[in-house]
Design goal:
7 helices; 17% strand; 4 strands; 184 residues; 40% helix; two-stranded parallel ribbon
Length: 184
């Protein structure tokens, strides 16, 4: 089954054939063995990065990464090489580094378990196109105080680079400062 994915590259669009999509890839992929010591978390993080960055994942990549006995670094290299074959104009020298960093950060976040509950309140400002699940990213289970959640346009990066004034206004409103004093 072939799906055509369009990725915007600034002022123009590039259409490239990809199989699988964020909506259908999980239903078509074969589940790997769940034997003791078997872990799919690095693969899921790699594929999450690919779906977030490229809109869909290459068909068969999940199977390729789960069938091979590769380190996380080697899995990222295989994924990057696969992307480079099908999306050469969108894969650059930083893609592998970003994918590996993202994967390692997701694995660290997954392992983190605070020893005690935070007793204060938290004000979370998150992007509409958020990668994390849950309205408050699970903070209500980690904090005993009030959780305030505000949402801004964009994704994890563009919310800061393109919608920073919205973030500044939220912070100023929370601190009871006039937003006119914000200069960027």
């Amino acid at each position: 089954k072939q799906v055509v994915s369009t990725q915007s590259t600034g002022s123009s669009s590039l259409t490239a054939p990809l199989t699988g999509s964020p909506d259908t890839s999980s239903s078509t992929r074969r589940e790997p063995s769940r034997a003791a010591g078997s872990s799919t978390k690095p693969i899921e993080a790699i594929l999450g990065f690919i779906r977030w960055s490229f809109g869909s994942e290459p068909d068969g990549l999940y199977d390729t990464l789960s069938d091979a006995k590769l380190s996380i670094t080697d899995q990222v290299k295989v994924a990057t090489a696969t992307l480079r074959e099908i999306r050469p104009r969108l894969v650059n020298d930083e893609t592998e580094y970003k994918m590996l960093s993202f994967t390692k950060l997701m694995l660290l976040a997954e392992q983190y378990s605070p020893k005690e509950t935070y007793s204060g309140s938290v004000h979370l400002i998150k992007a509409i196109k958020s990668f994390q699940a849950g309205e408050d990213y699970g903070l209500s289970g980690l904090c005993s105080g009030k959780i305030i959640v505000d949402t801004v346009k964009g994704d994890h990066e563009s919310c800061v680079t393109e919608h920073h004034r919205d973030i500044a206004n939220i912070i100023n409103n929370h601190m009871k400062l006039p937003s006119e004093n914000t200069s960027f």
